[in-house]
Specification:
2 helices, alpha/beta, 39% strand
Length: 139
């Protein structure tokens, strides 16, 4: 019997309403790098794809109604609930978010992450996805 064990998460996909607005938000607010890369051709001949790179991971973006195959069975705006880890103290994260005009929905609250106890705060991206920003260190 073959035994498979997943090693890590490489990327995930978000369906977005406005590609530029999403890229601006994730770059300006969360410091992610916007990258483009080739992909499967769509019916209109476009081959360029867009992603948000951070650390060793990325978030591929699909424009609503123009999703690339293979895709989720029901691609839906605002259905993601993502947790991002930062080494920046959350008090500084709050200051940055306020400077960016981003509303904090909840936090700082204790949570449990993949590697143990974390402190978290919650915001939403332009499509309504829930974004948890967490820190394993001190607040």
């Amino acid at each position: 019997m073959l035994f498979m064990q997943i090693k890590s998460l490489d990327h995930l996909v978000l369906t977005v309403q406005d590609m530029q607005r999403t890229c601006d938000f994730y770059q300006r607010v969360l410091g992610m790098e916007v990258v483009t890369f080739g992909g499967d051709f769509l019916q209109d001949g476009k081959a360029e794809r867009c992603a948000l790179q951070f650390g060793n991971q990325k978030i591929n973006l699909h424009q609503q109604g123009q999703e690339f195959e293979s895709k989720a069975q029901h691609p839906t705006l605002g259905s993601a609930d993502l947790c991002f880890v930062t080494d920046v103290p959350l008090a500084q994260v709050i200051e940055h978010l306020q400077t960016c005009g981003v509303m904090i929905e909840a936090g700082i609250v204790p949570r449990t992450g993949a590697m143990g106890a974390i402190a978290s705060l919650y915001i939403r991206d332009p499509d309504g996805n829930s974004l948890e920003i967490s820190n394993y260190g001190v607040l």
